[in-house]
Specification:
By secondary structure, this protein is of the alpha+beta class. The protein contains 13 helices and 7 strands. The strands form 2 sheets. A 4-stranded antiparallel beta sheet has the order 4-3-6-5. A 3-stranded antiparallel beta sheet has the order 2-1-7. It is elongated and about 145 Å long.
Length: 451
């Protein structure tokens, strides 16, 4: 309170101003204070109205963006978050609104050394893992997966401690971690993408633009990415994934090729012992006597020998046999090697399925060929280098037995290199020091949101 005459400060209990002696008018001061209060109230009300108007405008402008990833229903199977910051169960759901995802695009959600994964990039990994799983798994209902329902509301049929959303998120993060490892190994080994592959990656944008934007399906290439992987996902996020995938795949295949060249009997045995329970499901059992064979043949048809398609009689078959026998005799009179047999097959065989390979069929299973062919190949006395002449409905076959192999050994030999590489990469991947910020991760479930 102040004196009206001299402006001195007055205490509430004072009747006279101590400086000039002017009497203090209490009623006037109360009226003045009330006026200030009214002014403050009016200003506050105005601010509230302005804020309400702005909020209304935001709701209109961002109406679609504020819609959550799906209706938050009470469907059974949802697993509550446990708050464990080191596990995918940190959050019960990772589903966000469109606007939330757009704001989260550049948020770093994982790190391995200097390598970072943003939320936008994660959306691509998550979408690819989920789509690949759905396309390759033959019976989704058997594992309690319904793609018409929210994934964070369904218990995973492969791991009952997770929802399907958590399961796919975990797989997506593992995929990124593996790609980082393979890309780092490729760089350390001096492996670079071939120029044509680099050019293919460079041309992807133009291809998307031509296929989807020029045709009017989408307004931009980024809109294509959002439609496939979620709001906020950009072409740059997709290109990051595509580049990593190309390098990782190239180096992974190179590792398998190198392992194949150096495969040992110990590797083959180790693979079988590790996988034998799984192999038994497909009747692949060590020591069961099942074999596969490699064989070459030269097919001489009656039609080609007698130069006619109809009215074939035994005399025609006799001429065909004589023609086949002559080729066999010529081979025996020469070097009589597998290589010389292959050369004759390329020259004389009428079998389109093997002629370019010198008549070779590999890994033939019992019952795969016609009866006479099958009987000759799987004769218990058959050994490498055997030859012969047989007749089938197709004509006369000049046969050359390359060799045989136990079925379990054949399957193990083919799969051991990949198995060995996968075990090595799994060990290296798990050793990577990775930091995952689960609480910052936001996902989108296409098809589950309200229109």
């Amino acid at each position: 309170m102040q004196c009206k005459q001299c402006g001195s400060r007055l205490e509430p209990e004072m009747e006279l101003c101590p400086q000039c002696g002017t009497k203090v008018d209490k009623n006037e001061e109360i009226e003045a204070s009330s006026g200030k209060g009214v002014k403050i109230l009016k200003i506050a009300v105005s601010l509230v109205l302005v804020l309400a108007l702005l909020c209304g405008m935001v709701l209109v402008v961002f109406k679609n963006d504020l819609v959550p990833g799906h209706w938050f229903s009470s469907l059974p199977g949802s697993i509550p978050k446990d708050g464990n910051r080191d596990n995918v169960t940190c959050e019960g759901t990772y589903t966000a609104s469109r606007l939330g995802l757009k704001w989260k695009n550049d948020t770093v959600v994982a790190k391995i050394g200097d390598e970072v994964l943003t939320n936008g990039q994660l959306l691509v990994f998550y979408g690819v893992v989920k789509n690949n799983f759905v396309q390759t798994y033959t019976n989704l209902s058997s594992i309690n997966l319904d793609m018409k329902l929210p994934l964070d509301r369904q218990t995973c049929g492969l791991d009952e401690t997770l929802t399907w959303q958590q399961y796919f998120l975990q797989e997506a993060l593992n995929q990124w971690r593996l790609y980082v490892l393979l890309c780092q190994n490729a760089e350390a080994a001096g492996c670079e993408l071939p120029e044509e592959k680099q050019q293919s990656l460079h041309d992807k944008y133009n291809q998307f633009y031509k296929d989807y934007v020029e045709t009017g399906m989408y307004e931009s290439v980024d809109a294509v990415m959002e439609a496939n992987y979620g709001p906020g996902c950009t072409y740059a996020d997709y290109l990051n994934y595509a580049t990593m995938a190309a390098i990782a795949s190239m180096y992974y295949n190179q590792m398998i090729e190198e392992q194949t060249e150096n495969i040992t009997e110990e590797d083959i045995e180790d693979f079988y012992e590790d996988q034998k329970d799984y192999l038994k499901l497909y009747n692949i059992i060590k020591g069961d006597g099942n074999i596969v064979v490699d064989v070459r043949h030269i097919l001489i048809t009656v039609q080609r020998v007698v130069n006619k398609e109809e009215h074939i009689d035994e005399s025609d078959w006799k001429k065909t046999e004589e023609a086949a026998q002559k080729i066999l005799d010529d081979w025996l009179a020469g070097e009589a090697t597998e290589e010389s047999f292959a050369a004759l097959a390329k020259e004389h065989s009428a079998d389109p399925g093997s002629v370019e390979k010198g008549g070779l069929y590999t890994e033939v299973n019992k019952g795969q060929m016609v009866a006479e062919f099958d009987t000759w190949c799987f004769d218990a006395s058959r050994k490498a280098g055997d030859y012969g002449l047989i007749r089938t409905n197709h004509g006369y076959h000049i046969m050359y037995f390359v060799g045989s192999e136990e079925y379990w050994h054949n399957i193990s030999k083919k799969n051991a290199p990949t198995w060995r590489v996968n075990k090595l990469l799994e060990t290296q991947r798990d050793a990577l020091d990775i930091e995952i910020k689960y609480q910052k991760i936001k996902l989108w479930e296409a098809g589950y949101y309200a229109e």
